[in-house]
């Protein structure tokens, strides 16, 4: 999706991310001083959203007083709209790039299911609403997009297994990249235990959204499977 289009739909991500502000600040407080060195903050699954740029501003401000340089690295897939991200980070109101003179921004065009940075170099890791994207499509889940009520139990088991393995791989790579004692903060879509009624309502809603999406995009465009509200899947164009 082109950058400007994405930002018409990122309010939900923005609100969910705001809820983590206090956690991010606490994590930044615990980063030791490195007056002669660079501190690296990683944003895994950045998209083109202005959400991270604003959310990270007070965090980066705090870190900038502890280091010679703070660099925020935005990680996303190679096909991300990198130019739109760069413009958003530079121009959006309240962006972290303007909080201090020793702050810079960098881009990392690779999957967060791989190692993205050298071992023990990341001082703070952050991921906002991105881990619903699985590492690969699940053929059993259907052609383009699907919901639990449109899948058999075999397909649901495959998706759960893939999601579990992806989470393990994601954490293993972050464990390598993060400095000892550094924090990783993740917001992810999920259903809480006992929310079956809400789950059913979401299933219905998502089924309609999937139908609309399928109509709009046609068939055969699937590339990766998206895990949606912990039990839904969609295949990305
Ligand atoms: C819903 S957007 C979240 C954007 C932003 N973090 C926010 O909070 O507004 C999810 C992003 O994750 C990215 N993504 C999906 N799978 C990925 C992967 N394997 N590696 C890196 N980024 C990925 C997508 O390309 C998309 O830009």
From TrEMBL:
Which domain of life does this protein belong to?
Eukaryota
Task: Tell me the keywords, alphabetical order.
Answer: Magnesium, Metal-binding
The keyword Secreted is assigned to this record: no
- Does the record carry Cell cycle as a key word? no
GO MF terms held by the record: metal ion binding; methyltransferase activity
Give the Gene3D superfamilies listed for this entry.
Methyltransferase, alpha-helical capping domain, Vaccinia Virus protein VP39
Query: What is the protein name given in its UniProt record?
Result: Uncharacterized protein
